[in-house]
Every structure is written in C-alpha cells, then in structure tokens.
Amino acid sequence: MNVNLNNGFFKRLSPWIAYLIPLFFLTFAISDIPGPNGDEINFLSAPYIILSGEKPADIHFYTGRLYHYILFCMYTLFGDNLTVLRLFSVFMNVLCLFIGAKIIKELKPGDFNSTLFILILGTSPFFIAFSRYANESTTLNPLLMALGTWLYLKSLSCKGAKLYMTATLAGSAFAFGVFNHIIAVVFPLGVLLSLIIFFPKSVFKSAVSVTAGMSFILLLLIKFFTLFTDQETFGTANLYLNAKPVTLSSIIDIFYIIFRLFDGYYVYERFVGFSMITVIPYGSMIFFMIFFIRFFLQRGEGDLKRDYSLLTSLLFVVLFTIIIIPNFSLRFYLLALCMIPFIIVILHASIRSRILKKISLTLISILILGNITYVTVNYFISFSKTGGKPNVFKLGNFLIETSNHFLETRTIYNQLKSNHIDTLYTDIFLSRPLNYYDREERRFKIITANLDEIEEMDKDTAILFYSNSGIEMDTIDIKKRTLGGVELFRFKKQDGYDRRFIVYVYEERNDTEG
User: Fold this and answer.
1) What are all long-range contacts of 252-258, with beta carbons under 8 Å and residues at least 24 apart?
2) What pTM does this model have?
C-alpha cells in the first residue's frame, strides 16, 4: 500500500467531507432503527411535566433537568415526536465530533489527524448506535465533556481576563455535564488525576487549572446541596449498598466489555439482538497494535508523558465509572469509549518513522472500513430484516442485558388494533412505545401491572410478554377472591401475532369455587 502522507488522498480529504459518512449513518431511517425505547418515549412528555412544576417519577437523583429544558425548546420549535427527539441527539453528537476534531487540531495541528478522528469515531458502532436514540447520558454528556476539554486547551494559550473567562467556561461545561447526569463526573476526575500524576507542577501552579477547578467545584456544590435534599436520594441508596466491590478482576472485566463494545459485538446484541456476520475483535486488535508500535517500536521518541497520561486517563475513567454507577447499563461506558478513537489518533500522530506510520495508517484504514461494513450489515440491514430480535445476553462476568427495549413495536400495535384489543397489560418498556403509536387514536388502555393485579377482564383484554420471557404455558388463570369464593379468569395464548411477542387474550370466566 503506497500512501503519500504529504499529497495523498487521505490528507486531501477535508474534515468537512469526512462528516458525510457519519451524517449518513446517524440520520438514515432515524425514526425506525432501532425500535422506540421506553426511556426515550418518556422524554417526549417529561419536559412538559417538569415545566408544569411536577417531578416525573423516573427522573432519578443522578440525573438533572438540563436535557429536558433543551428538549422543551426543541419541541416548541419543531414539535414533540420521535423524529425530532432523535435528530436532536444526532445534532448534539455531530457537534461532539466537530469539537473533538478541534481538540485533535489543538494538540496536533493540521487537518489530517482531525479527519482520521472524525472517520474513526463517526463510524464506530457504539457512537452510531448510541447517537441514534435519545438519552441524556449519551446526548449531552459527550458534548459537554468535549466542550470543556476544548475550552481548557484554548485557555492555555490565552492571557489576562480572556484566560480566566475561558477557563471558567471550561470548568462550567464539566459541571453542567454532571448536572445533566452524574456519570459525567468520571471524565474530569479521571483526566485530572492523570494530569496530577504526570504533570503535577503544571496542574497546581497553572492559573487555568485552578480557575477551571474552582468553577467546577462551586457549581457542583449546588448540585450536591440539591442532591441531599432530595428524598429520592435515600430511596436509591440501595443501588450502592448492593453494588459489588471494585476489584482487579472487575476492572479487567469492564475493559473486556468496553472493547467488545468498541468492536461492536455488544452493540449489535443490545440494539438488534444478534449479529448477521460474526464480529471479530478487529477494533481492539488494531488499538493494541498501534499501542505496540508507539510504545515499543517507536520507543523514546515524541511526548511519551502526554501519551501515557492519555492511557492513564482512560484507566481512571473506567475505574470511576465502576465506583460511581455500579451495575448499570452499557451507555454509562460511552465516555470511556469515546476516548479510544482519540487515543488512537494521538498515538498514530506521535509515530515518526515513515514505515511505521504507513503501517499505523493502514491499520486505521482497516478499522474504518471494518466499522462501515459491520455497521451496515449487523446494524442497519439486520434490523431492517427483523425489526430486532429479543435476546438475553451476559456482559463479562456480572452484567446482564437484553435487546428487548429496542424491538420495533409498530407491527404488534397494528395487530392488536386489528383484533380489537382495547385493554392491554404489559411491561413498562412495551407500554410506552405502544402508547406513542396510539397517542392519536387513543384506542388502548395500556396498564403496567403484575398478573395478580389485573382488574379489567373481558373479551377485548390481553396480556403481552416478550417472547424470551420464559413463559411457555398455553393458558394463564387469574384468580380473584370474592365473597362467595374464588373466580378463575382464563387468558389463552393466541397465534398469528408478531413472533417476538407472546399474546394471551381473555377467553372465559370459570364458575365460582367455594
């Protein structure tokens, strides 16, 4: 492979052209792939509830209202529907790409390395999948962390009042990320600890660091004062009390999960339910190959302390993620994942040998092409063919996930409607998407309740489960105690519905038992 780094195609490729690939992947069939998630459907109503003065039950102590305030503005301008909600996520993450490219340019001047960063992150399976559904931790957090980092770097070249203003804005961006979702605190803490280890004099004596740190801490004090006056804080304390302790094996386990996400394997399992073509660990292998070239074959050249500090920052971000949000979902590792493409580009840019740089560039090209191929087949084509498959899969040694929450539910909605079902008992993550499709006709009364809490029973009442729920019986009998004894209400399993779901329809009421 003959690559001319000075006049070749890759260098002439403008970063602006490079944005076209992620823009296509992020916006293609945005309302249909993946299926509506219960959480994101909740974001269609939560901003109105908040602004009316009522706090939604599922805004937890670790989230804030910044995301909802911005969403309200978006809904006012463009309407409150799934397309607007998801396009807002895409817009925020494209901004994150743009600012990330600016950060690369601050550290390594020139457009070429920025272009590489845009193509690596912009085609990464995790970035595409998490950018295409709406959530405060995947939408605003990466953007605010990138913005804070860029402002911090800009303030290093400022003087006088401009220095203090820019550094204050940097610290504020980090703090607003924590306001938005507490998981964001792992990034500034992880990077700060790494800087203290490798550049202690610069951190403690720098006016930029002190100013940014003070603005960050002052704003966080407001957050934590609010936190400890929130009754829900104590109600969710059991999340931490029941969390497993951080051990070396758990850290290794989480890194295994992160690189499986970086390769895309867990992404396809989570959002699609399966992989159409087997995922080889191409991304993680390329990362470690470039790591080997930089630190072993290119040993002793370039800014080794800076490059080691980047890797140490990643380690600390992962460690703090385990401590702050234990036993949680894949999306909470997004900040650590976004650091990997950044580290790859910086390590590549630090390689000075022409031969080794060509090898590194070849590896990066394979990574980008692999991302495009796997995302096209295992995400878009697979989901388009199946609408998602219900699947339960294990993450590492202790985390369990399902693909259930991203199944396309429009088909089952139309089938229930055509069979004249008007009362439906189901899971909350199914009820929200079904209610979204039903919000104009308002045909269904959809209730989330345990089977023993079912009250309304007639020929148009049904119970809906995921097909991987483990329920295999042909009938479900609901017992209700009355003054005369116990009444049995029978629901029978019905065929002809979307096979990803199991539907039981009310059949009969048996005679009263004494």
Assistant:
1) 253/396, 253/397, 253/398, 254/318, 254/321, 254/322, 254/333, 254/396, 255/318, 256/396, 257/330, 257/333, 257/395, 257/396, 257/399, 258/318, 258/333, 258/336, 258/337, 258/340
2) 0.90
